[in-house]
Amino acid sequence: MTLSHIDQTGAARMVDISEKSPTTRTAIAICEISMPLCHSIPISTVDVKITMDENIPGYQIQAIVKTKAETGVEMEALTAVTVAALTLYDMAKALEKTMVISNVRLVGKMGGKSGDFCAVGVDYLG
Questions:
Q1: Choice among 7, 90, 116, 123 that is catalytic
Q2: Which residue pairs, CB below 8 angstroms and at least 24 apart, start in 53-61?
């Protein structure tokens, strides 16, 4: 089976669903979150990196988000990695439906009133 979201050159593409018949479909997902609070702020840059990690097995997604504003960009970085994971899920669901998106977490931040933070085991904050 091939990935339907990848063309012959390896580029990502939107799947043409115009020939598919409509059917009743249902999907169930769960998520856990504590205190989802955020502010609207201007983002200077977003850098998303996806690397294969054989220990998972799967991929690790990292997002570095920068701004010059009155508040931090932790929520934006968390959103970036989550959306990237959801995109990978969508592209690979034809091959594997038991994929699990997990361990979405903040591993570092720099600047702001509360100062710098680096999670245990993380060597680089970007």
A1: 90
A2: 58/99, 59/88, 61/85, 61/88
